[in-house]
C-alpha cells in the first residue's frame, strides 16, 4: 500500500547544498520511493547543541511502498553512504534524514517515533512542510500544521530564513 511520507533533510558540514542535493538524488533512485514534492532550502540556527555551524534544511514529500522501518533503514543507509558520523547527539553532520510523517500512522518504537518527536518545535521543519502541504493535520492529536506553526512563529521569529 502506498503512503505519503514527509522526510526532513539537514546539513551543516561541508558543501551543505550539495549534501542536500546528493541525498535527494539517492532518495529519487531508491526502489519503492517516489518524490512528489520538495520545499525550498532554509537556513537555520543549530537546534540542541548551539556551538556549531548553521544548517541548511529542506523537507520532501514522497510516496512509498516501504513500511516505516524499511524506510528508516533506507534513510540510515543513505546517511552512512554519504559518510555521516554519529559522534554526538544533535552535533554537526553532513547529512541528516528524518521521517517526519508516515501517512496517517502514529508509531512509537525503540527505533522510530512518528510523528517525529521534535518536529512541532522546529521552524526548519514546519515552514518547509507548510510550503509543501499547508493542510497537514497531525495524526496523533488532530492539530493542524497551521495551529502549530503560529505558536512556534510567535516564539522564534528570527531563527530561520528562506534562501
**How would you describe the shape?**
globular
Helix content: 25-40%
Gap between N and C termini: 36 Å
Alpha plus pi helix count? 4
Protein model, in words:
The structure is a single chain. Helix 3 (123-132) packs antiparallel against helix 4. This protein has a single domain, classed as Alpha-Beta Plaits (2-Layer Sandwich). A hairpin with a 4-residue loop joins strand 6 (107-108) and strand 7. The chain contains 4 helices and 8 strands; from the N terminus they run βαβββαβββααβ. The radius of gyration is 15 Å and the shape is globular. The longest helix has 14 residues, at 68-81. Strands 1, 2, 3, 4, 5 and 8 form a 6-stranded antiparallel beta sheet that branches. With 163 residues, it is an alpha+beta fold. The protein has helices at 16-28, 68-81, 123-132, 145-155, and strands spanning 3-11, 33-38, 42-44, 55-64, 96-102, 107-108, 113-114, 160-162.
Amino acid at each position: 500500500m502506498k503512503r505519503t511520507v514527509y522526510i526532513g533533510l539537514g546539513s551543516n558540514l561541508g558543501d551543505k547544498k550539495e549534501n542536500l542535493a546528493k541525498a535527494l538524488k539517492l532518495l529519487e533512485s531508491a526502489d519503492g520511493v517516489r518524490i512528489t514534492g520538495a520545499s525550498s532550502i532554509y537556513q537555520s540556527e543549530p537546534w540542541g547543541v548551539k556551538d556549531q555551524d548553521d544548517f541548511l534544511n529542506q523537507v520532501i514529500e514522497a510516496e512509498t511502498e516501504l513500511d516505516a522501518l524499511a524506510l528508516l533503514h533506507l534513510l540510515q543507509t543513505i546517511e552512512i553512504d554519504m559518510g555521516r558520523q554519529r559522534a554526538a547527539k544533535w552535533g554537526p553532520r553532513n547529512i541528516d534524514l528524518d521521517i517526519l510523517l508516515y501517512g496517517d500512522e502514529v508509531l512509537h518504537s525503540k527505533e522510530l517515533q512518528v510523528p517525529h518527536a521534535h518536529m512541532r518545535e522546529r521552524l526548519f521543519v514546519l515552514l518547509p512542510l507548510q510550503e509543501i502541504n499547508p493542510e497537514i493535520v497531525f495524526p496523533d492529536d488532530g492539530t493542524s500544521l497551521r495551529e502549530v506553526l503560529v505558536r512556534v512563529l510567535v516564539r522564534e521569529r528570527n531563527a530561520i530564513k528562506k534562501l
